[in-house]
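A reminder from the course coordinator: this example appears on the midterm review sheet, so study it carefully.

Given structure:
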């Protein structure tokens, strides 16, 4: 029977007909050079889990296939997306100049880090992440930002993961504001910044609980916060990958708070991912966090990048910005626009920016 396979392979290589990687079965895929049974199975499995390939370079997300293999196959394969429906924008809602809000979400300008303030009007206030500390005796920027917004009480304080650029300012928040309840994603991690925060929680004597995947926090009758993921413990203690992810919903509006999650987490969340109005772009716009099928499932109307001015990491990466622009997302950035304030009544939303108070030039 081996001679039959050799003949078929020869015809495949000599034929002018390219292989459509979105429809080819495993047998056909195996006729391609460098694609054996395991890789062919991986291609089909990828399509089944995440939908069709949208460009050839996406093949590199299949286990065992690298740029060299894709280059070798360029003249033998093609991507047919003619049968793929246009991107779903039915979840996009109208942007207006003013409204009477039921929810206010402020993506705070805290330099190279994350801090998001969620205010359910007539309900609870939630702070997710607290940005970096000030590196000395000064108060961290998050304290100034919260004061600029008139905050005095935080009903729920939580964070995505205990890296310093996400929890560095939280101990000072505990000491400067009334905090009623703390939610911890519960990752084993030792650092003086995290330990200082935990000490401040003990000193405050407030309620302290752990996130659980699927947990619902009712911030008001109209606003909910759902824990999409409390972290994936099997990812070998990579704190970025273990980032807790929150989805805030108010009527037809939603925002996804993603911490620093990277490709592995995005892969796991893709099958159940829901469209979203505003996404806080993972990991400050790093190339580590752009799994194409996940971004297509989210198809955000607005993409908010939280990063420090002139930061040494080059965040956000220009290619990541381009990827979101190709999705049709409006790009907003804390490093160039300051604090981004989104208000909604659940049917429409408005956007404003706040470049006020202390200015940050971040080289850390």
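Designed residues:
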């Amino acid at each position: 029977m081996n001679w039959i396979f050799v003949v078929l392979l020869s015809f495949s290589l000599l034929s002018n007909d390219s292989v459509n990687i979105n429809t080819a079965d495993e047998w056909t895929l195996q006729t391609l050079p460098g694609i054996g049974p395991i890789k062919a199975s991986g291609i089909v499995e990828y399509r089944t889990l995440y939908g069709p390939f949208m460009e050839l370079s996406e093949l590199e997300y299949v286990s065992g296939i690298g740029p060299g293999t894709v280059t070798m196959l360029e003249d033998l394969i093609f991507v047919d997306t003619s049968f793929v429906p246009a991107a779903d924008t039915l979840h996009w809602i109208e942007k207006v100049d003013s409204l009477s809000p039921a929810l206010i979400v402020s993506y705070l300008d805290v330099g190279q880090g994350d801090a998001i303030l969620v205010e359910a009007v007539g309900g609870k206030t939630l702070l997710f992440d607290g940005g970096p500390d000030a590196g000395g005796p000064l108060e961290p920027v998050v304290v100034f930002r919260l004061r600029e917004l008139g905050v005095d009480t935080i009903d729920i304080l939580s964070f995505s993961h205990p890296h310093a650029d996400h929890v560095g300012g939280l101990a000072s928040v505990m000491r400067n504001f009334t905090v009623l309840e703390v939610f911890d994603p519960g990752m084993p991690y030792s650092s003086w910044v995290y330990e200082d925060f935990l000490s401040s929680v003990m000193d405050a004597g407030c309620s302290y609980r752990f996130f659980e995947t699927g947990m619902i926090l009712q911030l008001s009758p109209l606003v909910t916060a759902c824990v999409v993921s409390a972290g994936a413990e099997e990812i070998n203690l990579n704190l970025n990958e273990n980032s807790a992810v929150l989805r805030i919903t108010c009527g037809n509006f939603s925002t996804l708070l993603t911490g620093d999650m990277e490709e592995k987490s995005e892969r796991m969340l893709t099958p159940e991912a829901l469209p979203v109005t505003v996404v806080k772009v993972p990991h400050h716009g790093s190339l580590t966090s752009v799994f194409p099928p996940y971004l297509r499932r989210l198809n955000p109307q607005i993409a908010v990048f939280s990063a420090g001015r002139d930061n040494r990491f080059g965040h956000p990466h220009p290619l990541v910005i381009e990827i979101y622009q190709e999705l049709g997302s409006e790009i907003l950035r804390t490093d160039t626009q300051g604090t981004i304030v989104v208000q909604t009544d659940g049917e429409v939303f408005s956007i404003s920016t706040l470049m006020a108070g202390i200015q940050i030039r971040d080289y850390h």
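The mean pLDDT is 91. The CA atoms of residues 301 and 328 lie 7 Å apart.
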